[in-house]
Amino acid sequence: MFSQLNTIKLAALVTGLVLVGASWITMQEAATNRPLVDPSKTEKLKLLSGFKAEHLYSPSDNKQGSWVSMTFDDKGRMITSDQYGFLYRLEMPPVGSGSAPKIEKLMVGPAPAPGDTAQRVGMGYAQGLLYAFNSLYVMVNHRGNKEFEKTSGLYRLQDMNGDDQYEKITLIKQLKGEGEHGPHSIVLSPDKQSLYVKSRNFTDVPE
Predict the structure, then answer these.
(1) Mean pLDDT for all residues in the chain
(2) For residues 200 and 112, what is the distance between their CA atoms, to the nearest angstrom?
(3) For residue 143, which of 24, 96, 166, 183 sits 20 to 30 Å off, Cα-Cα?
């Protein structure tokens, strides 16, 4: 079941990832010596009484692009997408541990041939992500080029051999539309039996 709505795009995480709430897990950047807490990232936020905001991680500071979508898998790990690149998976450390997060660039698709070290984008350019039905659903928003040939549409990723990676890619529905007015988020229906796809007004209504 697919429903198309004109909706405001989910807030883009352009300069960094900031999660607000009393129970969000704190993490620090893994590959740098920057301090865990950077007040400049949160000092302009206005919070309700009883809430606290902490700077967790800045992908742009680590040359990982601009993360514009996210979801959590069945193991509590965050999966994000660079607007113009890869998918990343984050494993959060225990609250208050001060440990670095485990950040993994997902290499989706068949395993590379021996000796092939090229960093190919197997899946990415996603402006919508949802983990449901033991699968990762990805809303690609892209025209398609030599760096990433897949075009806009809803894709399903599955781990077929139990190695905690996504080998199988299935195009569920191709969509015509790209950019800020193209296809965006995916949400689970209230009865948790189907998915709703949200797109902006430059996306053609699919058959």
Answers:
(1) 79
(2) 36
(3) 166
Interatomic CA distance for residues 96 and 149, integer angstroms: 42
- For the chain, list the strands marked E by DSSP: 17-20, 53-57, 67-72, 78-82, 87-91, 102-106, 126-132, 135-140, 153-158, 168-174, 183-188, 195-199
Average the pLDDT over 142-170 and give the result.
Answer: 92
- Residues, the chain: 207
Q: Which long-range contacts (CB under 8 A, 24 or more apart) does 163-171 make?
A: 165/106, 165/107, 165/108, 166/106, 166/108, 166/109, 166/123, 166/136, 167/108, 167/109, 167/110, 167/111, 169/108, 169/109, 169/122, 169/123
State the Cα–Cα distance between residues 107 and 110, nearest whole angstrom: 9
Cβ-based neighbours of 2, under 8 Å, separated by 6 or more: 154, 173, 195, 196, 197, 206
> pLDDT tens digits for 21-66?
333 333 333 334 444 446 678 888 999 999 887 777 888 888 898 9
The CA distance from 142 to 122, in Å, is: 13
Q: What confidence category does residue 119 fall into, taking pLDDT thresholds of 50, 70 and 90?
A: low
Instruction: Name 182's bridge partners.
Output: none
Count the Cβ atoms, other than its own, within 10 Å of residue 82: 21
Nearest to 138 by CA among 160, 93, 169, 112: 169
Place of tokens 């697919």: 2
Enter the tokens of residue 118: 């090229």
- Greatest Cα pair distance in the chain: 55
